[in-house]
Amino acid sequence: VDISTKAINLSKIRLNLHGREVRDKVTFIDLNSEPRLNSKNKNFLSEHIDSNSIDYIQSLGVLMMTPTYNNILEEFYRILKAEGKCTTMIYNKDSIWYHLYYGYVLKVLDPGELDEPVIATGAKSVAIKNKGDENVSTDDLFHYCTDGLDCPLSLAFNDKEWNIICSKAGFEVKHIGNYYSDYEVEIFKKYYKKSL
């Protein structure tokens, strides 16, 4: 199941490398090509996937891009077998990226104060335009600008928030780690002392 037709097609190509025996065990569901599969509705996959039928779900960098993440997690829980596992990756609100980059570099500094143009230069003006208000928060900047200035939604959660959200959907939650990008390290080196 994917929201990206391109990802589904690439997965089909990769699956073909494993031969017919494996290929015949896999069903692809492209959420973009099936309008009746609406993640705002509970059990939006019920006509395609039985309850307690899936061994493993991997959702990396997707759930924080939709306002219906609660419904999607509930649906994940419904279709997972009792011993099944679900791995998610979401943006971390307790990160250098969120606090230093969005909360300081893009929110506080004027573009003229930057050592060089940075990713999402102009994010504050986009957030102000989208929000319709000069008083933009770090959440607003992150929400409107994380995955490109035209991305309609990006959310960040701290560990406690995500644990509560997943627990409400029925999951037992285990945080297995964080990672950072090279760009995040560069931002830290350039702007950490200035931010203090």
Core attributes:
alpha/beta; elongated; 196 residues; two-stranded parallel ribbon; 8 helices; 11% strand; 40% helix
Structure overview:
It is a single chain. The protein has 196 residues and is an alpha/beta fold. It is 40% helix and 11% strand. The chain has a two-stranded parallel sheet with strand order 1-2. A two-stranded parallel ribbon has the order 3-4. α4 (96-106) packs across α8. The mean pLDDT is 85.
List the helices and strands and how they pair.
Layout: H1 5-16, H2 20-23, E1 54-60, H3 69-79, E2 80-89, E3 91-92, H4 96-106, H5 123-131, H6 138-145, E4 156-157, H7 159-168, H8 182-195
What spatial order of strands do you see in the largest sheet? 1-2
Evaluate the radius of gyration. Answer: 20 Å
What value does the average pLDDT take? 85
Structural class: alpha/beta
Detail the poorly predicted runs: none
Q: SSE order in H/E notation?
A: HHEHEEHHHEHH
* Main sheet properties: 2 strands, parallel
Strand portion, in percent? 5-15%
Count of β-strands? 4
Given the C-alpha coordinates, what overall shape results? Answer: elongated
Total helical elements: 8
Helical residues, percent: 40-55%
End-to-end separation in angstroms reads: 45 Å
Question: How would you summarize what this structure contains?
Answer:
With 196 residues, the chain is α/β, with parallel strands linked by helices. The chain contains eight helices and four strands.
